[in-house]
Write a structure and sequence with these properties.
The chain is an alpha+beta fold. Strands 1, 2, 3, 4, 5, 6, 7 and 8 form an 8-stranded mixed β-sheet that branches. Strand 4, helix 4 and strand 5 form a beta-alpha-beta unit.
Length: 195
């Protein structure tokens, strides 16, 4: 989606052919770190932990991590997640934050959000935590679900490159700045929201 459009633009500006590798979200940082990929672009949150392993571009998007529950749920704020089962996508910022900072939350990891939605609808989990854009799409398609007002956190996205690859980072930053100045990233986001 959005990141593929950005990656295409980066490759074009550099006069390179883009080769897209479809890898599990939780292995992207390692692919970049070990040089198996030149850069990682997949809605990657810029975190202290990840900054120890890779370098990041300028921020090109900001996202909110929100909580989805059934409409009759008693969960109305973040602290209500304690002693509850919460579904997340494996390796996402929601997974990392809930696993590290909320010891009383039972985190249920899924490779895809569709399974998390099924689990919530069939009462196997009490909530899902994910990015606000896909969350809004899920709500639009499932009238029995709602987004809790208080979000878990606000998140900043960047593109990951191997540590010390300043030349590539400079080129990526120039393309990102160009896209942001032209309003293209918002355009891509709206275009791919339904996916």
């Amino acid at each position: 989606g959005v990141d593929v459009e950005i990656a295409k633009k980066i490759a074009k500006e550099m006069g390179k052919e883009l080769e897209i590798k479809d890898t599990d979200f939780d292995s992207i940082i390692n692919e970049v770190k070990t040089g198996k990929a030149d850069f990682g672009a997949a809605g990657l949150s810029i975190t202290e932990e990840r900054l120890e392993e890779v370098d990041f571009s300028i921020e090109y998007a900001i996202s909110k991590q929100v909580i989805i529950v059934k409409k009759d749920s008693t969960i109305s704020k973040v602290e209500d997640l304690n002693n509850k089962k919460v579904a997340v996508q494996l390796g996402t910022v929601a997974d990392l934050v809930l696993s590290d900072e909320y010891p009383n939350v039972e985190v249920v990891q899924h490779k895809k959000y569709l399974l998390a939605i099924e689990d919530l609808l069939s009462n196997k989990v009490d909530a899902i935590v994910l990015d606000s854009l896909p969350a809004q799409e899920i709500i639009n398609k499932n009238s029995e679900l709602k987004i809790v007002e208080e979000e878990l956190l606000t998140d900043k996205y960047g593109i990951a490159v191997q540590k010390g690859n300043t030349e590539l980072l400079k080129q990526i930053n120039e393309v990102l700045q160009e896209l942001m100045d032209a309003g293209k990233i918002e355009e891509y986001t709206v275009k791919y929201l339904g996916e």
